[in-house]
Amino acid sequence: MIYLDYVSTTPLRKEVKETYTQLLSKYFANADSMHSLGYEVNGLMEKSRSLIAQYLKVNDNELFFTSGASESNNMAIKGVAFAYASRGKHIITTKVEHSSVYNTFKELEEIFGYDVDYISVDNQGRLNLNELENKIRDDTILVSTMLINNEVGMINPISKIHEIIQKKNKKTFFHVDMVQALGKIPLDLSFVDLASFSAHKIYGLKGSGLLYKKNSVQIVPLINGGQQESGLRGGTSNALVNIVLAKTIRLALEQLDYNYQYVLSLNQYLRKILNEIQDIVINSPSANVSPYILNLSCIGYKPEVLVHDLESQGCFVSTKSACSSKKNDISRTLKAMGIDEKIAGSALRISFSHLTTKEDIDEFIETLKISLQRVKKQR
Question: Which residue, 124, 163, 193, 368, shows the most beta carbons closer than 10 Å to its own?
Fold first, then answer.
């Protein structure tokens, strides 16, 4: 099997699985129960929170366990929007965000009456910073962007975005979706007000996520209930999942630089080969881009047909974000980049891992060539 869909999800790391399995039978108590079993589970969960805080260089009480990035994004964006509505109802995001961010802004706009600006990108996926600067107003309460785009891999200059926000309106909060960045590039949360993370993108458990929120930021909870997560996320804690998140993150951060350089070499190797194949266009930018993601188009071919034909040969890739994969429309990101519809409508997404080998890339190329010949008549 050749798996090249690591952006969608990753296999569970052996060490994480073993730790989680060991915890299951013994630490079953409710972390909020007022007895020794509950105290023990709660202690382990808070130890995990403390360790994660050390890894990310933030305070323990600025981290909140969630069910994943989609919840973290919703919690951050809606939480700030509702908490500071009296200050203003103008919020800003971009045209190329993950659906959990983009659709959250759409809901705030269409259901709750917020004034939303969607910042454009150029044909290399670069954010229009002049447009962003011009859109920030006195009543702007939030700017939300991703750090690494999940479809083509471009990296947003979040430090520059922060400078622009500080220049135009220091009261505006800055949220960053860091899902595709954790464990792949160094992170600096010092100038970010809120950030979202997911475990299953870094070889951890599904249903496990994290929200970073500076103490100076107030949010309205989306899930009301008990005292869990400082009263910001009611419901019985998924304690064991939260406990192993510290180990998941620690392992993801190990050999970060080495893994980056290794994956970069694979990306460059594949790019060179693809550039020699007729009717294939690379959509991912060549600069300011994550090497873990490579978006390409096989012009004139239906991407879903190619995906299934590749699968029949034991090779697994995707067309676009897994959260949008069942929609047949053109990728919102590629459309925003101004890519021709014939090219954008034929896009595939390849994503790499430190587990990927050069032999995997060679085999992918061979299976792709076979698929291009086999489905040629369907063009």
Answer: 368
* Beta-carbon-side half-sphere exposure of residue 287 (alpha carbons within 13 Å): 3
Residue 230 CB: number of other CB atoms within 10 A?
A: 10
- Which residues does the annotation mark as catalytic? 323
* Nearest residue to 185 (alpha-carbon basis) of 263, 284, 80: 263
Which tokens is 164 given? 């622009």
Rounded to 5 degrees, φ, ψ at 46 are -70, -30
Cβ-proximal residues to 43 (8 Å cutoff; 6+ apart), any chain: none
Which pair of tokens denotes residue 95? 């045209």
Contacts of 251 (CB under 8 A, 6+ apart): 13, 15, 16, 203
Q: Is 7 helix (H, G, I), strand (E, B) or coil?
A: coil
Q: Is 297 helix (H, G, I), strand (E, B) or coil?
A: strand
pTM of the model: 0.94
Pairing of strands 173-177, 140-146: parallel
Helix extents (H) in the chain: 14-26, 36-56, 69-83, 99-110, 129-135, 158-168, 239-253, 256-274, 303-312, 332-336, 341-344, 358-374
Encode pLDDT of 280-299 as tens digits. 999 999 999 999 999 999 99
Q: Angle 288-294-296 (CA atoms, 0-180°, nearest 5)?
A: 120
How confident is the model at residue 280, as a pLDDT? 96
Do 105 and 116 touch, CB atoms closer than 8 A? yes
| Neighbouring residues of 266: CB distance < 8 A, sequence distance ≥ 6 | 291, 352, 356, 358, 361
- Measure the CA–CA gap between 79 and 76, rounded to whole angstroms: 5
